[in-house]
Amino acid sequence: MKTIEGKLNLKGDEKIAIINSRFNHIITDRLVEGAKDCFIRNGGDANNIDLILVPGAFEIPFALDKVLASNKYDAVCCLGAVIRGDTPHFDYISAEATKGIANVALKYAKPVSNGLLTTNTIDQAIQRAGSKAGNKGAEAMLSIIEMLNLYKEIG
Ligand code: INI
Q: CB of 54 closer than 6 A to ligand 1?
């Protein structure tokens, strides 16, 4: 049996867009830090990252479509934090953002990662943005790196 998988190293010329939402930026800025740090530590060049800011998670898929259509990037890392409040708003925003990212990504043959936190509390978000439960921004970037290399292996 032949196993085909993506390595976790970069050449240094890969161009990446990070789309980050300003909403809950206390959390999402930490996700960007984690993603950037992961990219650099795996051989990427910080000069090859463009950070694209959108108002909230709902807007991520629209920006993602534009970014991928521009053909300027090898991969896109989507980051955001949707935190449950007292109304059903959370359910609509998190579902639409997640579905939207997947739907847009399927139109293009480029790696896209979903680094969208969907948490019940702000504490859970803090835990996933560089404390107790790691940094989901870094995990989202790592998945892009693996997928970039997997695409090369698949040909
Ligand atoms: N956007 C988020 O990114 N996170 C949230 O927790 C959130 N909540 O809870 O309201 C949120 N709302 C804004 C939304 O993404 C859009 O920007 C807004 O509806 C305008 O289209």
A: no
Which tokens belong to 21? 């939402």
Q: Name the catalytic one among 41, 66, 72, 89.
A: 89
Paired strand residues for 5: none
Nearest CA to ligand 1 atom 14: 56
> Left if phi > 0, otherwise alpha if psi is -120 to 50, otherwise beta: which for 29?
alpha
Q: Per residue of the chain (155 residues), what is the pLDDT tens digit? A: 999 999 999 999 999 999 999 999 999 999 999 999 999 999 999 999 999 999 999 999 999 999 999 999 999 999 999 999 999 999 999 999 999 999 999 999 999 999 999 999 999 999 999 999 999 999 999 999 999 999 999 98
Could you tell me if the CB of 14 is within 6 A of ligand 1? no
57 lines ligand 1 (CB under 6 A): yes
Output the CA–CA distances (angstroms, integers) from residue 30 to 35, 88, 94, 124, 150, in the order listed.
Answer: 9, 26, 19, 14, 27
